[in-house]
Fold:
Amino acid sequence: MKIFVIGLGQVGSTVVEALHDEHELTVIDVDQGRLNALSHRFDVATFHGNGASRRALQEAGISDADLLIACTSRDEVNIVAAMFANKLSERTKTIVRTTNVEYLEVWRERQLEVDFIVSSELETANAVSRIIGVPAARQTDVFADGQVQMVEFDIGPDGAGNRTEAVARPVSEAALEVAQRPRGEVVGRPLRDARIPANSKVASIIRGGKMILPRGNESILPGDRIIIIGSPSAAREWSRIIARTERRLDDIVIVGAGNTGVAVARLLLDQGLRVRLIEADGDRAREVAEELPKARVFRSTGLDPDFLERERIGQASAAVFAMPDDEKNLYAALLYKQHGIGFTIGVVHDRVAAELFERAGGDRAVNPRLVTAEEIVRWAHDPRTQQVAMLEGDRYEVLDITVRPESELVGVAFKDLPMTGSLIGAIVRNGTAIFPHGNDALEPGDRAIIFTESSRVGIVEKAL
Structure:
């Protein structure tokens, strides 16, 4: 596929890194230095110019493109570039990255002539929501309208998940029974003997940076990172086993009521969670209070210890830091930890800062640019691929792909499928998720939820 990428910031760079092996890329940017650095890393064509210029697009050869991805940091540039591409080429599909939910709403009303819009705010809100649902997970994503969940756990030196302090909340007797199980039932024993939660599979074990196929004689060991594919209830059970607690995050404080903070708040309110928003700007605080009447909105920097004590912020079960300053988000997370917050999520825009956030004591970092790139990348896959989740800096992917009737894998029992480094964790048949056993087989039209190395995505798509 011939793909044009406009904008070589973090989103564009991530997209190029994910796609350059399988596709013919042309990258357009106004910064010649960025283009030079890119051309030394990857075998891609570069064009120095303004992607929102009709003439520049023509000179770069947009008429031959199958797909245009406009992902600069300026929404208007992305929209204009896509609209020009649609006028210049009937064959070119267009994807636009936006940081303004309003543009997404206008597009849904068919008022923008682009094929698809990805909202950074909405993708970030979804990522935060998934973390709150399974807080012991390092990363999580949902497939098939929420019927299938992928979760990634770190197994600590003692066999526990990392940073899984218990939140003082009532738990059911059944949950306590699960939480009190010895982790030895899943950690430290061969998988064939482990008490794996029903409707779930260990898709991969990552040890020392290398992937280990989860055969029956393999074991999950302290220090491992594991990828699980299963039902949402199985994901929660894995979380309880690994963390030894049922952590109910139902009272959320959000610091920063910009577009991202409000998008997160709206999604959590829709899920029935209690939400408190803290915003330093008085006008913005009043505007958000009117927009979200179910949330409590405070006018404050959120960094005043007296305010934290007076409003009992430390009694919340989790805090999300969505201020535009990465350093301030990290400082606030550490401050809130001291005041009793058990779980912190930072919306961190720089990739290095995201790693620092977690190493310095924050629990989870969400990078809006990375989750946006992940949603964009799926459009460059086989058209049968409905969703993509990228893991470990795009070393691995989880795909939701429809099986062709002529696939050689149709009718082959799962126990007889070749060991290729890929694993089908679930299938969706007639709209219902199935978690297959050895004697089950793929049928034409099934949607396979499959874990694989990114370098093998093309092979997997062809096989299915």
